[in-house]
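Supplementary Text 2. Reproducibility record for the structural model of the 247-residue chain.

All settings were left at their defaults, and a single model was retained for analysis rather than an ensemble. We include the record here because the model underlies the residue-level annotations in Supplementary Table 4.
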Amino acid sequence: MPLDSLAAQHGGLREFRVDARIEIRNLMRSLQDSAARVHLNADNGTVYTTTVWTVDSQMETVNFAAEGDEQGLNGIVESMECVAVAYLDNVKLQFDVSQITLVRGSQSATLRSPFPQLIYRFQRRSAFRVKTGLRTGTRARVRLPHLPDVATELRLIDISLGGCALLLPHDLPKLEAGTQLQRVVIDLDPMTRLEAGLRVQHVSTLGPEAPGLRLGCAFQSLSGDAARILQRYLDQSQRQRRLMNLG
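Retained model, structure tokens:
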């Protein structure tokens, strides 16, 4: 998340800062206990998704799991700067990771780093998000940069008023954060379709259960009609979920 614009909106970032050592230690432990995915974003463009393997509170070091994707591991180790992003329930954590060392053991390997000096803690936006990954007919037709004349169908993972997540199969070229996708047509169900412009905000892996990359996208251009269509769809989905919970 670009912090300069956020600071301008809020008159600084003091309300989001966590710099007490005990709080940082507790957040590192929470990441470990929850097995939350941590996305390491290097300044050389490398993105590596991992989890917190161990936390050494006495030495104030954290070890991230390092399995597979040797190219990604090397990119992280060789980077000068790395920003970590993770989620604990509805809270987003963002912090710098420095002095990264790849430690190889007889059975496993880890990425070791000192505790961050500062963590930014953001409450995720409260907009209702619909997970659509298992539903039929939830697709987005996208004109990818390398195939501008062809509409490629990508699976829609989830959607909210702020944006959506798409599944990019491994057999398609990787997209980088910042990529603009114009005139994306999203089919939410046989009766609900909208068109929007998207900007790829972050790229991460989904794991073996869904081979491919997760493209977290923000809406860049959404007409008034499209916004109303999406709002109705989200409202209906939320009502359905509440009825199911009551049942």
